[in-house]
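look at this:
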Amino acid sequence: MSKHENPWIDVEGEDIPATITLDPVIFRYTSPNAHILDVACATGNVSIELASHGFPVTSIDINHDALEMTARAAIKNEILITPAFARATAVALPFADESFDVVIMQAFLTVVVSKEDRSKIVREACRVLKPDGYLYIADFGQTWHSEIYRKRYLRDLPVTKEEGSFLVYDEKTGELAYTAHHFTEKELVYLLIENGFEVEFFKRDTFVTRTGNRVNGFVVVGKKRKKIRNQ
């Protein structure tokens, strides 16, 4: 199991960050009855919103509490089409090739420490998408104009070895909770391009963290690139 997953396996559901809302642009890329995979569903906000629009949704997470919270939310909101659930890791999705029309990753890649794992995850998304399927990513961008984040990036660079990454500590215990990474536009674009996608949509945004900090953000939609047959 990759090191980026370990901190999240046993975190209590209520402590899982989930502050970014689903961008309406997703509905440009979802035809009626589109089968959607919500990777790292967290507390289920995205899965429930999509299911409430009538889409069949499959929600995965490595955290058991997260899946239970999503299931309870589906019941509470009286969703007619209840999401399917699976405890799974994004680096090796337990689904057949070309199973989904859309894959969603919302504030997920930010906690993937390894560059290699980020690429594996995006390639896996490409594998399980149908031809002309879409990958939607919403994630945090580097925010150097903020003194808070500028200090964190520079302070933790000797440890993280990656610009834009920093250590996050538990507010209750003061212990290290996880490592977060804020992306540049170039990073996200090339992450998609190098792993099977063409960029269909790109938007700069401002997100608010669970501690109330304002941070740069990106919403990106990639279209699965068609395979070129050998001549």
